[in-house]
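New to this. Help decode the following:
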Amino acid sequence: MSATCNTLVVAGGGGAAGAGGGGGFPQTDAAFVVTPQAYTITVGGGGATGGIWTTSGGVGADSIFSTITAKGGGGGGKFFADGGNVTNGCGGGGGQNDPDILRSGGTGTYAGGNKPASVNTPGTGTYPSGGGAGGGANGGHGSTGNGGIGGAGISSSISGSSVDYAGGGGGSSYEGGTAGTASHGGGAANNAGNGTAGTTNRGGGGGGCRNGSTGGAGGSGIVVIAYKTDGSDGVSTASTGGTITTSGANTIHTFTSGGTFTMVAASAAVNSGFLMFM
């Protein structure tokens, strides 16, 4: 028999260099069909840090539940580099560059912000980079004196309370100026040192850094599965896997690392109990 459950699958956020990393893309389904079997759960880690001159930020790893694959966020660009592209995901911000050269944010379902051409204010906002895309919006472009803001992610109450996920990381300016902010688990940029990491188990992109520092790492992802405790969704509380909690009428399985969700049908659990009673 088949049943339904509410699902949230968030991938790992992209790491940052000078520019912000993209958020780990979120996939939601309020009526995802499951059957009595064991499902392997993969929770993606965040992308590695980068530096303005050395390497761009790393790509976040995918999170997977059954047929749902959430794509990891793109890395933020270093100096002279565009942001990382992610098909069906969130692109990283475009890195710093010479004033008259465009550096594009990475493409995806949502695109990272650009470092536009002819944007440069020496000492107060040199070469501002783009913000990483979030799971609900494009990253902000760098502007005169300002790094791009991280794109907004999403909010979900599947866990029983509203939590923000998959925000993009903010972009920095090479020297001075205003660092890009972030929300929904994304890391803020820092024009005076290392960028802020994306929030763990919320899939935020890392925030960009200043010259001589490192960008923030991407935040790891999460997988959450919820269903009605009374069995009306067709799923029994005999199902196993992850950290199991209840909130209101729902039973919730939360995976902050890989594991196995074993779905047990509600009718099978009732019948089994009845037979044992008889």
Observations:
- Residues 1-278 form one domain.
- Helices lie at 266-277.
- Residues 270-278 have pLDDT under 50 and may be disordered.
